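Why does residue order matter? Because the sequence determines the fold. Keep that principle in mind as you read this record.
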Amino acid sequence: MQIRAPAILCSVRPHGEHGAVVRLMTEEHGLAAAYVAGARGRELRPLLIPGNLLEAEVRGRAASQLPSARLELVASRGPWLTEPLPSAGIGWACALTAATLPEGHPYPLLYDSLGALLDAICLAPSARGWARVLAGYEVLLLREVGYGAAPAPPPEEPWHDLVARLERQGKAIGNRLLADRAGDVMAARAILLDRLKRIGGD
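Structure:
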């Protein structure tokens, strides 16, 4: 296997003394797992932030081994990780994608939508500008993996209704997509929902 394509970094897991296993979302190849050598070094640490847009080169090894990846930074989400709400939104969107999509299946609409969601989180003046985009991404992901066709949130939905919608969708995601591994992943969503609720109603 050989892939060279723009990719959104969705997860990073340390592996061995110096490396890491990453999951990358690409438009044509879907989710791809790969090993990154030297991931904990000074040069690569700034690249390995979930949400970053990268140029990725993934090369297959032996059939029993993970492919290896070389990564170049295209756009960093690092500056937003110091902000509680954007950090929680980026973390949840990436964790959800990494944990629920099967590897090697292209989801071009999800790739584009995840990129648009991350851009919205980073560019909107507040969470009111991107929470609805997040809700729409969750609906799309549920639909793309075969769990119904819930309607997207209406554009003028009151804030408290949108938060209630996100709570309902969280239950569906936890029960349908993450039934066997909901704890760690849904913890990221619980943090996000708690912070969104603090914004207050319309």
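The chain is about 40% helix and 20% strand.
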